[in-house]
């Protein structure tokens, strides 16, 4: 709350959790002590807009480029992911995305280890 009249004029009233508990009163003096530097109005830098030379072309989604259910099953089998033949295409896509994310994270971890080894070797030399 931001009282504008009475004893609490200029104070901020706040609660830890909305609509639960007692109000905590922050006076103007307390708020000034919390800030480390003077508050200044920002002056953002703006630039003049440009006109693009060529039009942007975003092709519409093409159903022909989407994986079929059979292709999804094949990709999951290649990655040793167990599937239930009753799963629909959406569930199979989720499984494939999950497996790809796991592989991506594993590859990133290996890359970090290789980089750390190279840094350690240079440090020791």
Short recap of the structure:
It comes from Dentiscutata erythropus. By secondary structure, the protein is mostly helical. It has two domains: 37 residues, no CATH class; 58 residues.
Topology of helices and strands:
Elements: E1 12-14, E2 24-26, H1 28-34, H2 69-78, H3 89-124
Antiparallel strand pairs: 1-2
Helix pairs in contact: 2-3
User: In DSSP terms, counting alpha (H) and pi (I) runs of 4 or more, how many helices?
Assistant: 3
Describe the global form.
elongated
Query: For the CA atoms, what is the radius of gyration?
Result: 29 Å
Give the helices and strands as they follow along the chain.
EEHHH
User: How would a crystallographer describe the biggest sheet?
Assistant: 2 strands, antiparallel
Beta-strand content estimate: under 5%
Bin the helical content. 40-55%
N-end to C-end Cα span: 63 Å
Q: Could you characterize what this model shows?
A:
By secondary structure, the protein is mainly alpha-helical. It folds into two domains: 1-37, no CATH class; 67-124. Helix content is 42%, strand content 5%. It has three helices and two strands, in the order E-E-H-H-H. The chain has helices spanning 28-34, 69-78, 89-124; strands spanning 12-14, 24-26. A two-stranded antiparallel ribbon has the order 1-2. The longest helix is centred in the last third of the chain and has 36 residues, at 89-124. The termini are far apart. The mean pLDDT is 81. Residues 36-60 are annotated as: Disordered. It comes from Dentiscutata erythropus. This is 4900_t:CDS:1.
């Amino acid at each position: 709350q931001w009282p504008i009249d009475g004893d609490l004029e200029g104070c901020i009233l706040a609660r830890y959790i909305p609509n639960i508990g007692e109000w905590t009163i922050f006076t103007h003096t307390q708020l000034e002590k919390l800030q480390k530097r003077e508050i200044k109005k920002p002056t953002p830098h703006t630039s003049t807009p440009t006109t693009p030379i060529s039009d942007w072309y975003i092709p519409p989604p093409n159903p022909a480029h989407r994986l079929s259910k059979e292709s999804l099953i094949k990709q999951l089998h290649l990655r040793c992911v167990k599937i239930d033949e009753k799963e629909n295409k959406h569930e199979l896509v989720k499984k494939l995305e999950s497996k790809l994310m796991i592989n991506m994270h594993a590859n990133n971890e290996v890359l970090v280890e290789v980089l750390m080894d190279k840094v350690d070797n240079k440090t020791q030399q």
